[in-house]
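Hey all, quick one. A colleague (J.T.) asked me to put the 5-fluoro-uridine-5'-monophosphate job into the tracker so the inputs and the structure tokens live in one place instead of scattered across chat threads. No bug as far as I know, just bookkeeping. Sequence used:
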Amino acid sequence: PSTTKTYASRAELHSNPTAKRLLGIMERKQSNLCVSVDVTTAEEVLEVVRRVGKSVCMVKTHCDIISDFSKAFVDEITRLSDEMDFIIFEDRKFADIGNTVTLQYASGSHTIASWSHLTNAHPLPGPGIISGLASVGVPLGRALLLLAEMSSKDNLATGHYTREAVRMAREAGPEFVVGFIAMSRVDQEGAKEGEDFLVMTPGVGLHSAGDKMGQQYRTPREVVYDSGCDVIIVGRGIYGIKGGEEKVKEEAERYRKEGWAAYEERLGR
Ligand code: 5FU
């Protein structure tokens, strides 16, 4: 199973260029940390990214919350991703029919496919959502995650729905769909020889059990060691820490170390 293999060795199992690059970065930077930068101006996003960039394998955005999103912002975050060696993940959560998501991915004011290496989609509309997004993303070397589970309290992505999400990913093949947003190792049941999925997990925090709107937190060790997930996604726990710029940087390092230690423990090192 994927949980007993190193990130480096798993890079070989992927044909998708974004998945390969991500696993390479994880090994190089000893980081399975993704910081979710949910702040609302371009300059604030870039400030957080400059601060945490060295500690992360990936930066997650919500481009539709940035009030002054622009081509200049895209150019700068792209430059930082090259310089500081991280993947850009736009957490768009596409959820419409194939034709519409194709337009939403390639066009509009955000042209997500032009700059985001990785994005995600709800499996709710059925496999057409994958073929639509793939028609835009594959020629650009992009990758997709399916939301098989969510972190929020009483969400509906459970049981049969989760299993169908995994089945849909297997049917689509590894060219574009490289993994899941999930809280656990959802790909364990019915795993095929030679397959490898990346499981990325939000709802990670060391200081709080949740928020007032249903978010639920677990520690990096619970996520990576106990549940066997691959990437920890941390938002407010890092960018929201009080105490100024240095503190954000320190906190990112702290999560990176905890996430990496849990991964090494999982490998039995
Ligand atoms: F798919 C999901 C999910 O199930 N839970 C999430 O929290 C995505 N997220 C995102 O991760 C959410 O939209 C935020 O951007 C981020 C978590 O932020 P937090 O500040 O660490 O709670």
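Adding what we noticed when we looked at it: Strands lie at 33-36, 58-61, 87-94, 118-121, 143-147, 177-181, 198-201, 231-234. The CA atoms of residues 169 and 177 lie 6 Å apart.
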